[in-house]
Amino acid sequence: MTVSAEPADSKYERLIASARDGTPAVTVVAHPCDETSLKGAIDAAAAGLIDPVLVGPEAKIRAVAGEHGIDLAAARIVDAPHSHAAAARAVALIREGKGELLMKGSLHTDELMKEVAAAATGLRTGRRISHVFVMDVPGHPETLFITDAAINIFPTLDDKRDIIQNAIDLWVGIGMGTPRVAILSAVETVTTKIPSTIEAAALCKMAERGQITGGLLEGPLAFDNAIDPEAARIKGIGGPVAGRGQILVVPDLEAGNMLAKNLTFLARADAAGVVLGARVPIVLTSRADSVRTRLASCAVAALYANALRARVAVSA
């Protein structure tokens, strides 16, 4: 395994520093009614990453802030009576053009995503909505994206096309260059016994034909020969991606969730999270996330929001 000589915090710290150089993204925070979610939003504002709009029961938000010594001077508050109303109002504010990012507060993810996915009032686009874990793995030289390990349970081939394109667009949009995309399976050969190997091969052909753009794709690859150059060499797998994968595309949610959690709990990796494919990036954080991970999630989303803002300005 290649061991990085970089300081342990360098990957996330670079993202956070880059995001500070841009304009703080106006971020609608849905129901930040506990210490963790409220402090996360306010810490991100203090770091110069976001400009928060807090949506939820104002009296409760202020009570939580008072109890835990959280300064709300930098935030605007939009009153909503409960979590469901907060989710609906937060999504409506995005639709009205009053926010560039959506951020989950202390409500359940399903409650927020139900409003995001609503056909008539949500934030759907022509793309499949998907999730990316932005992983900082100690001892590994590069940031890893793992997708999709949180939203799409058994994605179809067409879903995977969108999942990959979403991840590539994020990687490119936050200024990380052209990504090497490894499409994972249990083995690196195509076999009818493992359908994900056939889909991996099809996705690579789709990239050759311009149906997926902006990245270098290879698959199927097993996890070892996707990220370790020596494992790829031993298996005789060449090319620019094998052993050097940066975006890891998993066969299904179960595989991705287990991979991300294995890295988190065994390798002590940090896992920031962003949802893509909606009208705006969505910051999903967990109560177990560290302050650094929360800031990294906001930084990645803010960098992407800045890129999208610049793209709109150019097209106008």
Runs with pLDDT <50, length 5+? Answer: 1-8
What would you say the CATH architecture of the domain at 125-277 is? 3-Layer(aba) Sandwich
Q: Number of helix segments? A: 11
Element pattern in H and E: HEHEHEHEHEEHEHEHHEHEEH
In the CATH scheme, the class of the domain at 125-277 would be Alpha Beta
Name given to the CATH homologous superfamily of the domain at 125-277: Isopropylmalate Dehydrogenase
Q: Which band does the percent of strand residues land in?
A: 15-25%
Could you describe the 3D structure shown?
The N and C termini lie far apart (47 Å). α4 packs parallel to α5 (109-117). Strands 3-2-1-4-11-10-5-6-9-7-8 form an 11-stranded mixed β-sheet, sandwiched between helices. It has a domain at 125-277: Isopropylmalate Dehydrogenase (3-Layer(aba) Sandwich). The protein has helices at 10-20, 35-46, 58-68, 83-95, 109-117, 157-173, 195-208, 223-227, 229-235, 253-266, 291-315; strands at residues 25-30, 50-56, 76-79, 101-104, 130-136, 144-147, 180-184, 216-221, 247-249, 270-276, 282-283. Mean pLDDT is 93; it is low at 1-8. A hairpin with a 7-residue loop joins β5 and β6. The radius of gyration is 20 Å and the shape is globular. It contains 11 helices and 11 strands. The longest helix is centred in the C-terminal third of the chain and has 25 residues, at 291-315. The protein is of the alpha/beta class and 316 residues long.
